[in-house]
Design goal:
With about 110 residues, this protein is mostly helical. It contains five helices and no strands. The radius of gyration is 18 Å and the shape is flat.
Length: about 110
């Protein structure tokens, strides 16, 4: 389990049940949420979790979006700009991931 209190918490399951209710989904036009268990020791997910953690801190925490579309566009722009930055400077991505390669070696 991660450090988040949401992992395997009763509050999480209650929230999922709420957002999956027909009334909630109809009123908010939202999709069905399905929880999928992850394999134990899936270290490759740490990179994914760090990316989404950075995104949530940068654009979701303390935000006040007026619509789902506005939030979605902001998320899309975040990843677009992030990907361009790392395309222009791939060494920065390698350092961030802790996988800097020695380009002098064959």
């Amino acid at each position: 389990m991660g450090h988040s209190f949401w992992h395997a918490s009763k509050a999480l399951y209650e929230k999922v049940e709420e957002v999956n209710s027909e009334k909630y989904r109809s009123n908010n036009m939202t999709p069905l949420v399905e929880l999928v268990p992850l394999p134990t020791g899936a270290q490759f997910l740490n990179v994914i979790e760090s990316v989404f953690s950075g995104m949530s801190k940068a654009i979701l925490h303390n935000s006040d979006y007026q619509s789902v579309d506005e939030c979605t566009m902001t998320i899309d722009r975040y990843f677009y700009e992030r990907n361009i930055a790392f395309t222009v400077n791939p060494d920065a991505l390698a350092r961030r991931l802790g996988q800097r390669e020695d380009r002098g070696r064959l």
